[in-house]
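Lay summary

Proteins are chains of building blocks that fold into shapes. Our project writes down both the chain and a compact code for its shape. Here are two examples, one after the other.
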Amino acid sequence: MRFFCKQWPVHHRLICEKRQRKAIQHPDLSTKTHRSCDSLHVTEIMALLTHPQPSFNNANAPVTKAELKAEFGKFEERLDKKLDKLLSEQANVILEAVGETMEKKLDEKFDPVITKLDGILKGVEALQQENTVGAEQLRRHEDQLQKHEARIAKLETASA
């Protein structure tokens, strides 16, 4: 027997799931093997085709507790995502405002300190440069002293 219903795969899946749940709940039924089209299966499919399952598209159809839970779960997930997005946006705005305020306050506090440190740094750099020049001059003088000592020693040995 062939069915030409567009919802055939859906009805077939629903019945298979129903049988699996029954097999789990009643172990004595689990010994039966599943056949895709046995006579009981065909009658169940026919019943589903003649009495379709309620859907959310039909406003007058009754809704089961499981369907409500599923829909509320989906709604809750969407709501959580939107709330998370809004909270993160709000946190970013607050952090930006706090960051700008802190930056202004830090600039006000540290600008005079940095200006004074710049002056001190220039003085230190001048002293380092002077120290380097002085060290070079000292080396030249020491070299010159050694040369003078060598000449004096030659003169003293020559006159002796």
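And here is the second example, written the same way.
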Amino acid sequence: MAVTAGTVRVWGAGLGVVVLWASAFPAIRVAAPELGVVGLSFVRLAVAAIALLAVAPVFGVRPPAPRDLHLILACGLAGMTAYQLLLNQGELSVPAGTASILVASAPLVSVGLAAVALGERQHAWSAAASPSPASRWCACPGPGSGCPAMYGWSSAQLSSKGSTTP
């Protein structure tokens, strides 16, 4: 297979995304105690907004229609702001590695909710690719415990009781 400039750009972009995503969890763990949950959330969202404003003209992104602004604002508040606040607060009590695996499990939770609430059909590949067993393993307090995380305990409850991740 010949390596082209496009292939290098795609692999470079993919590697950049992986590195930035993976480094976010330890960075939150370090910055949240210093900036506070709200301060860190504001900084993260401000950096993202500035970056998007900088690249939008380059890619010809048009401004949203005025009639859509209230929906965009609602999505921003309910989605991004809530996510940032909850993630940053959770990182104060859950180790960064555990948090990253739990966040990576979010698509599986979405699939499960879609199946239960909306009656969507699931395929075998969605279960095979599931990170769920890894997230349950990381939330367990230790060997021989019966893994109470599988019975509805949250990672935050486990870590506040002095548990350790394997």
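What can we say about the second shape? Residues 128-166 have pLDDT under 50 and may be disordered.
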